[in-house]
Amino acid sequence: MIVGFNHNITYRGVSFHVQTEDGGLKSPHLVTLLYHGGTIITSQKTSYADIVKVDNLDHVIEELAKEQHKGMLRRVTKGEFDERIIELGIPLGASTEQSSQQTGSNPPVAEELPPQEDSTTVDPAPDPVTIVEEPIVDKFNQPKVSNEPSLDDLIYAYLTAGQN
Predict the structure, then answer these.
(1) Half-sphere exposure of 43 (CA within 13 A, CB side)
(2) Which residues pair with 19 in a beta bridge?
(3) Alpha carbon of residue 144 to chain centroid
């Protein structure tokens, strides 16, 4: 069983979180979720019940999870979920042309100005996409931070109190 993958991504000026988790052998599926501020935008679930007997299962599952996770990141950056994001009331930063294509409205018509001698038209650069990988945290095997006795040590001391 893999721990999972987590990435924060900024797309068109808005931060999203992509998370992929493995359900393990008792629930053999990979789930990838796209979030914005606690709201699930979309999900993808892939069963691997048909391959649980394969050699090197952990490696195979890890590769499947990586591909599913990267696929979700690619789908976000290609704009596949823009319509769903807007339906949820999440404003995406966009040029007037992009906004009007998504909403179906006509862009405002600018008054035409006479051309100037040295004027050049430059298309604005698209907003950069930033992907930030979060550290993998194993919730079950975290290192001890302090010198305090563990819960197991406390229970053992309690149960054996007064016995030599």
Answers:
(1) 9
(2) 6, 33
(3) 29
Query: Which two tokens mark 97?
Result: 């042309």
- If you write DSSP's letter for every residue of 115-160 in order, what string do you get? PPTT----PPPPPPPEEEEPPP--TTSPPP-SSSPPHHHHHHHHHT
Dihedral sign for Cα atoms in the order 60, 63, 69, 72: negative
Enclosing H/E stretch for 16: strand 14-22
Tokens in use for 46? 């892939």
Is residue 106 over pLDDT 50? Answer: no
Can you tell me the distance from the alpha carbon of 60 to that of 48, in angstroms, rounded to the nearest whole number?
Answer: 10
What radius of gyration, in Å, describes the C-alpha atoms of the chain?
25
pLDDT (tens digit, 9 = 90+) per residue, 136-159? 555 555 555 566 777 777 777 777
Tell which residue, 26, 68, 24, has the closest CA to residue 46: 68
With contact defined as beta carbons under 8 Å apart, do 35 and 16 qualify?
Answer: yes
Q: Is 151 exposed, middle or buried (0-12, 13-18, 19+ CB in 10 A)?
A: exposed
pTM to 2 decimals? Answer: 0.58
